[in-house]
Amino acid sequence: MGFIHRRTSKQTVKVKTLLGLALTRLAVARRPHVARRSISSSDVSQFLALGHLDRALHRAEHVIEEDNILEAFSIIELYCNRLIENAKQLDKPHECDEDTQEAVAGVMFAAGWCGELPELLFARNILENKFGGDFAMMAKHGTGAVDPMLVWKFSGNKRNMELKKKVVKEIAAENNIQVNFSEFSEVAEQDGCDNMPHHQELNHKAIYQIDMDGSSESGSGHSPPHDEDPCDISDFDGSKSVQPKEKKATISVRTR
């Protein structure tokens, strides 16, 4: 019995080590998601400023996705810290309190969704041996002791129209932009944005060269990259009267 006890303790120490490594990696994994969330939020604001409500709603899906991942990371961080602090309970799975069981189940579930945290997979294998196949099976499927909120953060519908409208309204309020959904057709939005072509994605450099009435900004130091089609920029703001060659001719005259 002593040998078994020592072996279990070693496995518990290994779980603590893996969870500690996961926490370290988690801090790094957050950064790109925070950056993408910021960019997507800025995109929504710029689309609204240009009057493209349908594109703003489509881009809001990316904001929701990044928000969900970041919130899921926060839950995972809480679970890892809880298991590290209460590691002794892992040696007696049947005596674990509900909070510890929830943390174990949450880590098991998240391991299948977080490729950025490979340590969770190794920790899950050890925890499965401790808590049994039935417990692990329910956890992997997001049932049993798994918090439904964590399941939703990973697998929820980011294309829910009401949620997208809520996000757009919040971003609009932050940027003092008025939004009116009364004349907006949800059916048209679903048809037009769910299969949105790649070339219609927001061009950040183009945005700064177009003012609110669709004309080229004077004195701007920005210019579209050579590998971008300037026609996409004129099409983006709805103006078809501005031709790329005429812009270049005007700039060359001013320079001389």
Automatic annotation (TrEMBL):
Residues 212-256 are annotated as: Disordered. Transmembrane segments: none annotated. Pfam families: Ist1 (PF03398). InterPro entries: Ist1, IST1-like. GO terms for biological process: protein transport. Belongs to the IST1 family. PANTHER family: EXPRESSED PROTEIN, IST1 FAMILY MEMBER. This is IST1 homolog.
